[in-house]
Amino acid sequence: MLVNARRVLQRRETIWLLVSGNLRAGHRDKVLGNIWNLLDPLLFIGVYFLVFGVGLRQSGDDPMAFVLYMAVGVLAYNFLQGTLAQAASCVRANSGILHSVAFPKAILPISLSFSRLYDFAWGLLVLLAIVFAMQIPISWAMAWLPAIVVVQWLLCLGLAFWVAHLGAFFADTVNVVGVLTRLLFFGSPIFYYARSQEGHEGIVPERYLAIYYSNPLACLMEAYRDAILWQRSPRLEELLYVAAISGVSLLLGFTIFSRAEGRFAKYV
Asked: pTM for this one?
């Protein structure tokens, strides 16, 4: 594993080129180009607010607070969902390179994870701008944000290795990932309060909260909200739990992916 990791580090320039290519391809032939990095999160938040906040009356008496609450969930979910959706096809989508150039294939999921991190960073900047515009008090708890982002990126990257490995051998992985991420959307506290807090009643019974928050994405969403909205430190035990899952997933995923990369060319 250390040898493979060293090979990847030696290809830092290749990773950067792939990241740049992914970002350019994402906005190719679009009139507004990279401005969509700002518009996408705003439009997503607006649509979900109309559906869940207004249509399903989840916003209550404080619609702007619900907009921010929901925006955090949407951004965190899109980061994970976008990474996994691309990871499922990243090996097959680069079959031409696989057959013509010798390089550590692990740079494919790594580069796409950085691309999605870039998009997430733009969305987070939009969210923070809204927070400042609403004159929400700025707390030292926001200093937790870099750590939370890093933990989520590690989680996304670790899962991307697993998904990319399966996607190289089974084309159906794309469909399976689509179903699972849609299930994850409704199983995470994006547009509803899972536990009671800040005057809002949670919909998950107390006895099931431990099971519900075994979902790492749910823990991350609450950590972001604690740091940005509620001006308090995240629950350290939940953040450490996600960090442990991210680390194990990354180590095992990278090892399994690296050992199998010699067989990819036979299947794509």
From this structure: 0.88
